[in-house]
């Protein structure tokens, strides 16, 4: 997320955010989280620290985060982002970034209404707009839209997150993982300038 945002004005791309529910993707594909294998979880906790330094992102991960992201702890946030996508799409990037920072960097709650509204305020949403979006998260329209975008991700081959789909030369190309951005650049004929392009 953070590095793609850095490249959106360097590469010739039209970056679009598509909310999808990771728990639904994992369940539909039969995928298991890395943390379910003790040795892999141990490795991943160390590897994320290295990646945070390399990509210059303030991520800090704990075993608790694995459970939260796969359960319903992020569902309200994803529905809120979906409601924004449906009615206020210009806020998708700042909302996505603020939810990311709150969850992955600050280890703060993103499941409760007051937490969601705090994120919305950080992202620059007027309070009346944020309140309206919050009211929409339990609507069938928002639930169905999130289900559709999650199913669309699965259709493209997603089995986990992060996943990016590049539509290039009339074909979709799935890239899984934060370490595939150099390959994405190569596919679309753009130069990789490292994780923090100047």
UniProtKB/TrEMBL annotation:
Belongs to the GST superfamily. Kappa family. It comes from Eurypyga helias (Sunbittern). This is Glutathione S-transferase kappa 1. InterPro entries: DSBA-like_thioredoxin_dom, GST_Kappa/NadH, HCCAis_GSTk, Thioredoxin-like_sf. The keyword Transferase applies. Its EC number is 2.5.1.18. One of its GO terms (molecular function) is glutathione transferase activity. Residues 2-187 form the DSBA-like thioredoxin domain. The lineage of its organism: Eukaryota, Metazoa, Chordata, Craniata, Vertebrata.
